[in-house]
Design a protein that fits this description.
8 helices, alpha/beta
Length: about 260
């Protein structure tokens, strides 16, 4: 078992990261788990989590599975950049009241598992989940050969129930990435249900949007320091550099694009 405790600076309930398994008898066994990528925790993701929390009804732990690195990054999908980095994902998970995030390493061995091995070995033996929630388009197993119907069939012998949840079509990570590239922060905000928080890197040379994160269109933006609450206008260059920010900023919210 390998479980890391996430720090809790905002006095929110603790969140745990599970990398491999949960020991028999541990309180996190028996969870209701939502399956997906959860890049950005947009409104569609929160729809799945809300259903998992409804099923758990405060009597069981609630979790999500979100592998690292993102499968599209691992397979080298051209132009794939993230809405949020893992550290941000952990904070959002804590805010949403998750008990744990199952964050296994996505490598060739994990990607090559058969659907049967994934259900029996990972969900049943390693995690001991009681219920699974997934979008109706969820795919799993080597070559993405498994769907929700197969998931339900394979999970039933282990007493694990499965629910396929209808997707909220207007809210997807792909649409959010496209809107960010176009500088359309209003569409991004509608899909996320909040302002987009950009991961940034601060160096003596200035502040840059982090390399792995999707980069908004160059231009002028209204932004806010999410920690201090101060707002200002900045210019974003094509190389990701942000002009007009102090080098001590930790969390940056993009509020609106300026003419």
């Amino acid at each position: 078992m390998f479980i890391d405790r996430i720090s809790d600076p905002d006095h929110l309930p603790p969140l745990r990261l599970v990398r491999e398994s949960i020991a028999e008898g541990h309180r996190l066994r028996g969870a209701v788990i939502a399956l997906g990528n959860f890049d950005g925790f947009h409104r569609g993701h929160r729809h799945l989590i809300a259903r998992a929390q409804q099923i758990a009804a405060g009597r069981r732990p609630v979790a999500v599975m979100s592998v690292e690195p993102h499968p599209r990054q691992f397979f080298g999908v051209p132009g794939m950049q993230r809405i949020a980095l893992p550290a941000q994902k952990h904070v959002f998970g804590r805010i949403l009241g998750l008990d744990y995030i199952f964050e296994p390493t996505f490598d060739r061995a994990f990607a090559g598992q058969s659907p049967e091995d994934f259900v029996e070995g990972v969900l049943h033996r390693s995690l001991g989940v009681s219920h699974i929630v997934a979008g109706r388009d969820f795919r799993f197993g080597a070559g993405r050969c498994g769907d929700v119907a197969m998931l339900a069939r394979l999970a039933a012998p282990f007493g694990i129930s499965v629910e396929g949840v209808p997707l909220l079509e207007d809210f997807s990570s792909s649409l959010i990435r496209a809107a960010l590239v176009n500088g359309d922060l209003r569409s991004v905000g509608r899909a996320l249900g909040r302002f987009w928080e950009a991961a940034v890197t601060c160096t003596p040379d200035g502040v840059h949007v982090a390399d792995e994160v999707v980069r908004p269109a160059p231009g002028h933006y209204a932004v806010a320091d999410a920690v201090r609450g101060t707002t200002c206008n900045v210019r974003l260059d094509g190389d990701g550099r942000l002009h007009g920010l102090p080098n001590t900023i930790d969390r940056l919210l993009f509020l609106d694009a300026l003419a």
